[in-house]
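Can't attach files on this board, so I'm pasting raw text. These are the components:
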Amino acid sequence: MAWTWRPNRSADTRSMRHLRPITVMAVAGILAAACGSATTSPSSAGSTNKGKVGGKLIIDNESGSTWTCQFNPFNPSVNITSIGFIYEPLEFINILQTNPDGTPVVTPWLATGSSWSPDFTKLTMTIASGVKWSDGTPFTANDVVYTFNALKADPALDLNALWSVDSGPLTSVTLEGTNQVVFTFNAPAQSYFYYVADQTPIIPQHIWGSLDQSKLDAEADKTPVGTGPYLMSNCSQDNIKYLRNPNYWQSKPGHPVPQIAEVDYPAFLSNTSANLYLAQGQAQWGAQYIPNIQSYYISKSSSTRHYWFPPTLNVSLFPNLDNPLLSNLAVRQAISLAINRQQVSQRGESGYEPAANQTGIVLPTYKAWYDKSIDTTAYDPAKADQILAAAGFTKGSDGIYQNGQGQPLSFTIKTISGYTDWDASLQVITQELKAVGIQVTVQDEDSDPYTNDTQNGTFQLAYGEMPVAGPGPYYELRPMLFSGSIGSTNYSRYKSSSTDALFNQYSGASPAQQLQIIQQIEGVMAQDLPVIPVVEGVDWYQYDTTSFGGWPTPANPYAQPPVWATPDNGMVLTRLYPVS
Amino acid sequence: MRYITRRAGLFLITLWAALTVNFIIPRVMPGNEASAVLATFRGVNPSALHALEIEFGVNVHQNLIVTYFQYLANCLTGQFGLTAQRVPVLTEIISKLPWTLALVGVTTVIAFAIGTMVGVVSAWRRGGRLDGILPPLLFIVASFPVFFVGLLLLFVFAVTLNWLPLSSNYSIGAEPSLSLSFAGDVLTHALLPGFSLVVVTAGLWIYSMRNNMITTLAEDYVKMGRAKGLPSWRIMIDYAARNAILPNLTGFAMQLGYVLGGSILVEYTFSYPGLGYLFYTSTTDHDLPLMQALFLVYTLAVLICVLLADLATAGLDPRTRDA
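---
Top answer:
Structure tokens for the assembled complex are below.
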């Protein structure tokens, strides 16, 4: 019949899918270099506005689908609505804040502190006392031991592969005394501290322990019981309503925590509707990509509305090093020199995402690790020309360089369809490469086949980024360059035994040694160009100070600010306070 | 009777074929649920792939034939399992179904009614003022894709004028209830998607109805009616329209079947959380159980409606009964 709809890909399909992956992140994590040495005072939560409680905070974050009203903190498609609100981890590791020696700032949470054995294979955590689950049952170190062993019993929960890689790294989690938990690893494991302390929410044994332990991943957890600052009060497909936990353990007389009485988390199916809601001033905490944010959002109330886009990961060109042309260093150098990263940042990303540098260190976030003397980033098309000519390439009649066998420097770049900013960036890149005699064609793919292709190496060039950031450049550089990650996140298929050795030393190294290791890897990035960073991906974050204060700001970056960043959202929720 | 049994037999064969295709297609799509979760939720640690594969049973190799018969049995008994987000598939479908049925069902009926009436009248007064304006205009609009009309309407009424909501089925934070204010809220949200569907579909009904009418009006029995001196409205309705509507009725029944599947684009454009939107997300999330169940729902809807149309035609048109 003539009147069936043809479900073809419409133009607007693109605008929405751009945001989905960026905003829906369920943030699981990366490894952490913290040794638990740099702790601050226990969450100085809600330290402002004289202990006032009240207000209703509305969150604005496009989720792409309606809520399922499940809160299992180990289900990656729902746990952004339970971790931080209801479930809490042992310690908080702030990926945006570093101590002078480069280690991230660690804040005690359900644990009061932690210490490593000298060889970094044994981690001892001291569990806080006086914490209660929201049903009144006391929280104990047994719950912690139970949680980690549950991940072992049901590998589908083990999202950070604490148990499953080569029958390790974790070999046992046991109780010591009454309030200490000992994590034993089969090798130096500092980099796993982030996963253990920050990225694993603790669940109550008295509830989860009575379920089928091999099917905990299928548990819906519709009425979650946690230790967190909020209680799930009501959930529908369209909205989750959280009310403050009146017995929250961080509350003290005259010093209530959290201070906001109600938090609403509506499900937004499209980016446009979420942006409109935010622009209308109906929501106060945004994690949205907003084109023309100045005129669309800020200008409507410029004294109270703010945004901050902290960069956390590189968006890079990945050359497939199995490709005979791209395995030629000269070609990669020419590509890097030909790209004007400022231009890509301005025209492709409206300046919201800053230009990246060839060392792979995201600035200013990880500036403690950056060594300027190593950095080779430059925009120099003339030099790109020289390098190609010197390497024996000659220009064909079409202005494209070719090698001695007549193979032209002509490549496809795979990218994810729907990421309109990436498409715009690639347009700039295409023109710039063409100017130095390298032909590239952009190929848009759905995220699922794109992921498969980049992982399996069925591409020539790919535009993309690592899935997750972590507390330090190690958590981006290792997945990108470690040869053991070929087949997953080492898209370029970079193999270097000396680089592998550097990564392997990292987990057992002192902070000073770790800095040296990372700077050597910066050298590899700058000299070998296994990956060509172009711009720095950012966290989208907007906030309105009309009714609430205590937001993370560039001056006080106490947590990763978007609401999907867990457990950072818990840090924010316990620090916000009503102002009026 | 023979006609009906033959139709019913055809129904069963088509259903089986559809079920089989439905079984095969998602299995030849690239990727799987675990990698889709990684691709969709970009913040997930890549090491989670192993955990996710266990969760979704991705690398559990099963005999395809056995799986196929299990699948057939599950379809017959209505056991569709859990979605990738761990919700029973049936619950998910039932929660979205009313929105799609109400939105697209009502608009389809409205479009059919408007289209048929305008078609009848414009054919009756061929060359008249109505005939000169409405059919060509609506036919042009009908050739626009629905998302285009939808986006245009959104731009004018939601973004520029700010009269109507941009998306969703009701206001954020509104508590569903049987109150008048909630009904009004739902209605304002349905206005734009509903209107774009009516505008886009009505033209086709006008076109086919007008053509049928013109053919019928040339029939001898119409001349006979005129010769008998019947009032012209009786000739128009009882003599011409009753016969002209037969092919359209089949079309209408089929269209009702497409209501479910056909809502994808409009629901996507307006972020309307119905079955169409669910279908879209299930495809991008590579949610096999949900996708298969939705395919099945669509197929069944079309097949049942076609069967009903056949039966209705048999009732209205005595000639088909002997065929």
